[in-house]
Design brief:
Layout: E1 3-5, H1 6-21, H2 29-40, E2 47-49, H3 50-62, H4 64-83
Antiparallel strand pairs: 1-2
Helix pairs in contact: 1-2, 1-4, 2-4
InterPro entries: ComFB
Pfam families: ComFB (PF10719)
Protein name: Late competence development ComFB family protein
């Protein structure tokens, strides 16, 4: 059985949305990974078994409180990484 952190899906979806809105930010693979790591390190983990995670991931995306927390972490990650990219 595999375990999975649902926050990864939430961060990825919201990061993609925010990056699509901005043309002034680097979107290279390194910067995107750094943004995801930065955001994930500032959020609580939500581990589930892989099978269960697939079932509940859509419910997690609809959770307003969770989405707001992820949005704040992603916005912060974009700001920090774009100010000091490692590429």
């Amino acid at each position: 059985m595999e375990i999975y952190n649902l926050q990864e899906d939430l961060v990825e979806v919201i990061l993609d949305e925010k990056l699509a809105e901005r043309s002034d930010i680097c979107k290279c693979d390194q910067c995107q990974v750094d943004m995801m790591v930065y955001a994930l390190n500032r959020l609580p983990s939500r581990y589930v078994s892989k099978k269960r995670g697939e079932t509940f991931s859509r419910l997690e995306l609809a959770d307003t409180q969770g989405r707001t927390s992820v949005l704040a972490a992603v916005v912060s990650a974009i700001k920090v990484v774009s100010e000091s990219p490692r590429h």
